[in-house]
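Database export, one record per block. Field names are fixed; values are copied verbatim from the stored entry.
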Amino acid sequence: MFNKVLKVFMVVCLILSTFALTSCKRGERERITVKGSTTVLPIMQKVSEAYMARTNVSITIEGSGSGNGIQALINSTCDIAMSSREMREGELQSASGNGLQVKEIVVAHDMIVPIIHPSNPVTGFTTAQLKAIYDGSITNWKDLGGRDAQIVVLSRDTSSGTYEIWSEKIMNKADVSRGALLQASSGAVISSVANNPLAIGYVGFGYINASVKGTTVDGIEPLLEHGKSGKFPISRGLYLYISENKISADAKKFLDFVLGRNGQKLVQEAGFIPI
């Protein structure tokens, strides 16, 4: 009799243990790690919030700059890298050397827009004037139709993809003046310009708000249609990079959502230009 009771007890314990393990497994949240561009960050934050609300997935996002995000992908410390520039040949070679099969995904269109304080009477610049401001040739607002005061020049740091596009399309690869104040994020540029009537900076289109004034470039206004068509002089794509041979099924489903109708609607709600 005792043996029968013991056997029944052991069977019940086994069933309960199996149920507990299964329930625990079902309760676990799949984790996806995203790192990189602070320009792409608002897009991924908005899309991720909506995706996590409908799935059993946890998405961690870190805005550390395009170069850092790409390096994280190369080192396999993130699932998805955000970038506001294309990967360089050397980065692609490093990824390949680590056994990664890199895929580039365009997630949105963007414009890099010069921004100034709303009280500044200047409304626009030519690309030549922007280069002169950033290489130190023009230092006073009066030379641009503004007040007689020194220009406070704000630039992104060199790990930024936005900095690289600015360097390519405005500076013709020339160095930014040593007097420029380097900012670690697009949000920092917005905050600094909003609090300084003499400042000029540049950010992705989606970051512009009422605290700053976006300006024309070569007479072209920073409008959604001008960014999507590439008419605005400082237009670009925004990218996500993955390793096709290492990405999880859950991360693939997330990317499908980002690129689908609902995800692209959220891209526009974030202030950027859907593909």
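Remark 1: The first helix runs from residue 2 to 27.
Remark 2: The CA atoms of residues 153 and 180 lie 5 Å apart.
End of record.
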